[in-house]
Design goal:
This protein is mainly α. It has helices spanning about 15-30, 40-45, 50-70, 85-95, 100-105, 105-120, 130-135, 135-145, 160-175, 220-225, 245-255, 255-270, 275-300, 300-330, and strands at about 5-10, 35-40, 75-80, 150-155, 185-190. A three-stranded parallel sheet has the order 1-2-3, sandwiched between helices. Bound molecules: tryptophan. Tryptophan binds near residues 145 and 155.
């Protein structure tokens, strides 16, 4: 039997090529080896997104983006967290076994408190602006994971603490009832994923405003690529491909022969940054064109997209219900 792998996707807008190479592509690869369950963490997003229109459309954009990027809903159970009410029942049960002290130690909460302190807040005020959704975020995340008997959770380093908390909570439940009520999940830290440089050379990130969007129309895509910052080397000067972020980006999209050929042109001199950007645009557009077309097709028919997610939820709910029932029985609430 294949192992179960599960991961949650926070619906944040403007998917970019950093998301594609850093998250979507590796997760799609992994889904071929595992019995994979991927979901849109829309109730997690509610903690920070209070504009209904924005949240509603971001959920669809991200779902369409992952499908367009290669996620196969026949092969992966793909659903929205909010479609599985059992997750929230399990969250309540997990709460009874989660010490408040554990939540006090969560990075996201501590960061928010520290920010308040830096802004001169003292005593109870250090909790200002922090909602209970943020404070209890790790419990909901533990429920997401545990409810599907997940073996492994592929996540970035920043999420490892959350997985450890899920382990702690599940272990104290198993210890209390003297039986393995819940499966203990393991983190699979996604290493070796490409760090994608942004337009300004820093890591590509929405918060830096340096992204190359995944689904922009061709014209916008070209304009964006032309905005990549370069040094003032003249056309004639030989250029070092290894220190050029244009070339680092090119490597993600081009095959070995193309990379070698372009590296030679860099080193020979006579190629300006404008030409280098045009070469980059060509290979980026080659990969993104079919992805963009699929994305546009999904976004043009939201009811059909929602149906895909609902079908995922239909497959997921019986699995979730079985875990909740097992726990309720162990707890005496049956
Ligand atoms: N917290 C994760 C993030 O910020 C998203 C997430 C929610 C998640 N629930 C999950 C990831 C369960 C893995 C498993 O990216």
């Amino acid at each position: 039997m294949k192992k179960i792998s599960l991961t949650g996707i926070k619906p944040t807008g403007d998917l970019h090529i950093g998301n594609y190479f850093g998250a979507i592509k590796p997760a799609v690869e992994l889904s071929k080896e595992y019995d994979a369950r991927y979901f849109i963490a829309d109730y997690h997003a509610l903690n920070s997104m209070k504009d209904p229109k924005e949240l509603n459309s971001t959920i669809r954009q991200v779902a369409a983006g992952w499908l367009a990027g290669g996620l196969d809903p026949e092969n992966v159970i793909f659903y929205r967290q909010s479609s599985i009410p059992e997750i929230f029942e399990l969250t309540t049960m997990l709460m009874a076994f989660t010490s408040k002290g554990l939540m006090n130690r969560a990075h996201a909460y501590k960061d928010a408190v520290n920010k308040n302190k830096e802004n001169g807040k003292i005593d109870e005020e250090t909790d200002s602006g922090i909602n209970m959704g943020l404070f209890t975020y790790p419990v909901l995340m533990a429920a997401d994971i545990i409810i599907f008997d997940s073996d492994v959770v592929p996540v970035g380093k920043d999420q490892v603490q959350h997985i450890e908390m899920a382990q702690d909570i599940a272990q104290s439940i198993n210890a209390n009832y003297g039986q393995q009520v819940l499966k203990i999940p393991q983190a699979a830290v996604v290493e070796n994923v490409a760090v994608v440089p942004g337009l300004d050379g820093r890591k590509m990130s929405k918060s830096y405003g340096n992204i190359i969007p995944l689904f922009a129309p061709e014209k916008t895509l070209r304009k964006t690529i032309m905005r990549i910052t370069t040094n003032s080397q003249s056309v004639e000067e030989p250029k070092d491909p290894d220190t050029s972020q244009i070339f680092q980006l090119y490597k993600l999209f081009a095959d070995q022969n193309e990379q070698a050929a372009l590296a030679n042109r860099y080193r020979a001199g006579g190629m300006g940054w404008g030409d280098a950007k045009e070469e980059l645009f060509q290979v980026v557009n080659r990969l993104l064109t079919p992805i963009r077309e699929r994305y546009d097709t999904y976004m043009a028919d939201i009811p059909a997209l929602d149906k895909i997610l609902e079908q995922g939820a239909r497959k997921a709910r019986p699995i979730a219900a079985a875990t909740v029932n097992r726990f309720r029985k162990a707890a005496g609430i049956d």
